[in-house]
Amino acid sequence: MEAGKGLLHKQEATILDNVINKLQIYMDQNKQTLYGLAAKMGFAYQPFYRLMTKKHLPTLNSLTVIASHFGCSVAELIHEDVFIDVDCYDSFADAVNMKKSPKIRAYVPYKKYSQLIYSNFFAVKGHVPWQGYEQSSTDHKAIDSKYAIFYRVDTISIDGVFLVNYKSKDVLLEVVSVSSKYVIALLNGKETKIDVASIKPIAHFFSYLTLMKKNQPIVLGVPK
User: Fold this and answer.
1) Judging by beta carbons within 10 Å of its beta carbon (0-12, 13-18, 19+), is residue 182 exposed, middle or buried?
2) pLDDT digits over 111-165, tens only?
3) Mind listing the pLDDT tens digit for each residue in 57-108?
4) By C-alpha distance, which of 205, 201, 189 is closest to 130?
5) Radius of gyration of the chain measured on its C-alpha atoms
6) Which of 6, 62, 182, 184 has the fewest beta carbons closer than 10 A?
7) Contact indicator for 170, 98 with CB cutoff of 8 Å
8) Which residues pair with 87 in a beta bridge?
9) 122-133 burial, b if ≥16 CB within 10 A, otherwise e?
10) How many C-beta atoms lie closer than 10 Å to residue 200's C-beta?
11) CA angle 191, 193, 195 (to 5 degrees)
12) Residue 36's CB: how many other CB atoms inside 10 A?
C-alpha cells in the first residue's frame, strides 16, 4: 500500500472508490470482516484499513493480489462497473427451470447493483425485453441487446419488465403501476388491470449485456 500524498487526483480517487466498492460488496456478501479479509489476502491490517478509509493508495502489487483473490483482471478491479458471473440460458424456459448452463461475466453499474447484492442474477440469450431501457452513456460501452440480464424475484413490488408465469405461460410483462392486489401492465399495447394472485413472478429485468469496444483491455459477456 502506498501512503497518500495530499489530495488525490480525480482519477486516483475514482480508481480507489471503484476498488473499495468491490471490496465492500465482497465483505457484505460473504459476511467478512475487514480484519478477516486483510488476513485472507495476506495484507497487514493497518495498511489495509488505511486503504479502505482512503488514506493510502493501492500499489500495483496490492491491486494484483486483490484481483487474483476476486478472479479478475486489474482492469476489471479498477473499473467503475461491477463484474458478476451469471448463468446464461438459451431460453426463458431454461431460466425458469434453472437448467444447468454455462456462465458468462456481465458488467453492471455499481449504484444499481449495490442495492441488489444478494439477488440471484442470470442472463438469457436472444431476447430484447424492453427497447426503451435507458443505458449508461459512457463512451467505452456498447449494448448487446441479444442478451438480457434478470434477477429472480418472488413478488412484484415496483414497476418494470418482469418474467412471469401468467395464464400458464412464461411471458414478459411490462408493469407500469403496482398496488397490494393489482398491477397495471401493458398487454397488446393497452394498460390492463391484473390480479396479482393470477401472476407468478419469476424474475425482474435488470439490463442488457454490456460489451467493451474492441480497443478496451477487457471483454464483457465472455464464457467463463
Assistant:
1) middle
2) 999 999 999 999 998 655 554 444 443 333 444 457 889 999 999 999 999 999 9
3) 889 999 999 999 999 999 999 999 999 999 999 999 999 999 999 998 988 9
4) 205
5) 20
6) 6
7) no
8) 103, 122
9) bbbbebebeeeb
10) 13
11) 150
12) 13
